Amino acid sequence: MEIGIDKIGFYTPDVFIDMEKLAEVRGVDPAKYTIGIGQEKQAVAPLSQDAVSMAANAALEVLDEEDREAIDFVLFGTESGVDHSKSGAVWVHHLTDIQKYARSVELKQACYSATAAIKMAMGHISLHPESKVLVLGTDIAKYGLNTGGEPTQGAGAVAMILSANPRILAIDTDSVSMTEDISDFWRPLHSDYAYVDGKFSNQAYLNFLTEVWNRYKEKSQRDLSDFEALCFHVPYTKMGKKALKALTENASEEDAARLMGYYEPSVFYNKQVGNIYTGSLYLSLLSLLEQGPELAENARIGLFSYGSGAVGEFFSGTVKPGYREHMLKEEHEALLSNRRELTIEEYENILQQALPKDETDVELDTQEAAAGTVVLSGVHSNVRNYTKK
Ligand code: CAA
Predict the structure, then answer these.
(1) Is the dihedral of CA 188, 193, 194, 195 positive or negative?
(2) Less crowded by CB within 10 Å, the N or C end of the chain?
(3) What global pTM score does this model have?
């Protein structure tokens, strides 16, 4: 039985900054951000969009009544959780009207946890083939003003419905994962901002990639010639290029040219959104499937997931015939092109806003700054209130 991705939804807030303008204000050559880092625009999350509302908005794009009845597992991958106890999955389950006899859980391991969620979903569906699982990857990447990580911020969510006989991507059951306790990127409980050892994190990412790929090759007996395209975790698009270069260093000219040919379509959305941590690999997959040429039936895509701290995994999937009919290309292009550009001053104000860290109630402006069906409308008596517009 094939198990995999049946539908993919995406949401990003409706405001962004232009990377060239950020560079000007920071006194940096704009080419460093647009070429050196590889980012054109950066999505900015107003206070009224958090990990929960963004995930609910991404899920609402794809859920229909049949899905709502069949989903019995909601897995919420994030490193931007909003409560130490209650999982974001419970709110999303409610906000998207999924039938009540379902499990709802949040998973954490930096940018990796949506991949763990996919693996759990596959195990669940193999035991219960009639079930569907909603997998969410949702995050706000925040390093702070004037930091090295600032050009790699972003915000957004990807929602995937996993099922038997999927219509988009059947996921292979062989994969290789790896764990090592390192401090390349983390966010202590006291901090709104991530801490990062930038250069070390780049190196750690590449070390993980090389190691899991080499082991995957041994175990699966596949090599680059078996892959039509590759997708990577994309903290910034230049990192995706570094990953591709590392894997194709000793490849045949034919393999290298084919795989490099898919790089631009596979980062088209990421370039305009920035890092969305758990969702970044899946935004790259979405970008490849919607912005690249139509792939042949059963073309194999390799996927590398990396979550600092660190866990990495290389796995793969094959595209299903007619997958294009189930993509929402026009909707995603409209979502990105209808956003409003913020001035750098407006962005700086938003980035420094935070919900009260004490018991104060707050009512948020949900009219102007946050398109999307679901918004965080306020916090009352320490309870977060989400509103469906
Ligand atoms: N024109 C063109 N290119 C230029 C340039 C110019 N004028 N000036 C600089 N560049 C190039 C540099 O040569 C460099 O390219 P290479 O990486 O190919 O050598 C690139 O621009 C970046 O320049 P620096 O290395 O000087 O940049 P930096 O020190 O300011 O920081 C960073 C870069 C380390 C990625 C930093 O943005 C950062 O810390 N980001 C957050 C951490 C991160 O994303 N790590 C990725 C791996 S970890 C992970 O994947 C998990 C996750 O999601 C966080």
Answers:
(1) negative
(2) N
(3) 0.98
Residue 335 identity (one-letter amino acid)? L
Fill in the DSSP letter of residue 37: I
Ligand 1 atom 13: residue of nearest CA: 36
Classified as helix, coil or strand, 32 is helix
Task: Say if ligand 1 is within 6 A of residue 306 CB.
Answer: yes
- Is 233 a pocket residue for ligand 1 (Cβ < 6 Å)? yes
Contact between 13 and 370 (Cβ < 8 Å): yes
Question: What totals of helices (H) and strands (E) does the chain contain, helices first?
Answer: 13, 18
Beta pairing, strands 340-341 & 15-18: parallel
41 CB near ligand 1 (under 6 Å): no
Query: How large a percentage of the chain has pLDDT more than 90?
Result: 97
Cα R_g (the chain), whole angstroms: 20
User: Ligand 1, from 32, 78, 267: best to mutate by most atoms within 8 Å of Cβ?
Assistant: 32
Q: Is the dihedral of CA 47, 51, 52, 56 positive or negative?
A: positive
DSSP label at residue 382 = T
**Residue with CA at minimum distance from ligand 1 atom 5:** 32
pLDDT (tens digit, 9 = 90+) per residue, 295-352?
Answer: 999 999 999 999 999 999 999 999 999 999 999 999 999 999 999 999 999 999 999 9
State how beta strands 15-18 and 71-77 pair.
unpaired
- Helix/strand/coil for 213: helix
CA-proximal residue: ligand 1, atom 19 (nearest):
36
Helix 280-291 to helix 263-273 angle, to the nearest 10 degrees? 130
Average pLDDT over residues 249-273: 97
The C-alpha angle 307, 312, 314, rounded to 5 degrees, equals 130
Nearest to 267 by CA among 80, 116, 41, 54: 41
Ligand 1 centroid – CA 252 distance (Å): 28
